[in-house]
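Bug report (template v2)

What were you trying to do?
Predict the complex of my protein with 5,10-methenyl-6,7,8-trihydrofolic acid.

What happened?
Run completed; filing so the output is reviewed.

Input:
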Amino acid sequence: MNNMPHYEEQYLSLMRQIWENGSVQRDRTGVGTKALFGATMRFSLADDAIPLLTTKRVYWKTAAREMLWFLTGNTNIRPLLEQKVKIWTDWPLDRYRRETGADISQDDFEQRIVEDTAFAEKWGDLGPVYGAQWVNWPRYEAAENGLFRRAAKGIDQVSLLVECLKNNPGSRRHIIEGWNVAELDQMALPPCHKTYQFHVADGVLSCILFQRSCDLGLGFAFNAFSAALLTRMLASVCGYQAGELIWQGGDVHLYLNHAPLVEEQLSRTPSGAPKLKLLRLADSIFDYRIEDFEVVDYQPQSHISAPVAV
Ligand SMILES: Nc1nc(=O)c2c([nH]1)NC[C@@H]1CN(c3ccc(C(=O)N[C@@H](CCC(=O)O)C(=O)O)cc3)CN21
Ligand SMILES: O=c1ccn([C@H]2C[C@H](O)[C@@H](COP(=O)(O)O)O2)c(=O)[nH]1
């Protein structure tokens, strides 16, 4: 064993700092948070290292399925539910209950989305969130009489990024941006992990993720894993090694009703060095499948459940 602090110590010390010194905020959800503004964590991605939390089990396949769904450009929760991924159900369900007054259970709502195509189209869409902006950022072109119309195909930031990483590695413009100001009001939630910037140095690809708002108890574990996975997929299709994930948070918070999670997690000690294996080199960033990913040497402590603030 070496004497380097475990990568997860950064996470636990940020959690402790927020819990002890964060400012109490009345937030949008009404739950209330303790928050701190501005934080950075750095995680190595070299030699298949992956920033998975070890002080609780993280269902990384859920996060990987979500990332693959972003890359398809789909914004409907139906393909997620078909894979039993339920992390986005609360928002459409909330809207359905509000707009119809129906008293439907989450299970029944999810089943209806999977079985009824028309229902899924009407009630399962999140609006132009991540995937829509990543691979189909809307463009407008001049039409008759000085009017404009939406072009059939939007801008595929992901494909452009791959080309740019391969052909112009020294660029300082390797960015995927989710914050489309003109469409924020149509989104179920404005993007949290809003800006990804990549950097190539000596054949090594690194990523900075800027996350404007971070639910440190629940969302972070997914966001860090997903960003690392995206970096690994990009490195692989571009022929680079993966270097580092630098995570930067704006409003980083702990929901006040996460006290049991926070206290339990802060009592635990991180251990081990999980690795993410990409089992196949895909032809394109869009060709990866969940079966292509394997995590080894991951022996986390038990899962800690916590309520999600809607
Ligand atoms: N308050 C809040 N926190 C979030 O992290 C979050 C949102 N809202 N809204 C949009 C998405 C949805 N995300 C979510 C939602 C739920 C879980 C969650 O419940 N995770 C559990 C179980 C995961 C599973 O079933 O696989 C966990 O313990 O990690 C995680 C991320 C991330 N985002
Ligand atoms: O990927 C995600 C998505 C969402 N979150 C969290 C951060 C906040 O707690 C809420 C979003 O609420 P806003 O009022 O829009 O900030 O969801 C996350 O951590 N990661």
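What did the reviewer find?
The pocket of LAUPNLSC (ligand 2) is lined by residues 28, 189-190, 192-193, 213-215, 219, 223, 309 (CB under 6 Å). Residues 141 and 269 are 56 Å apart (CA to CA).
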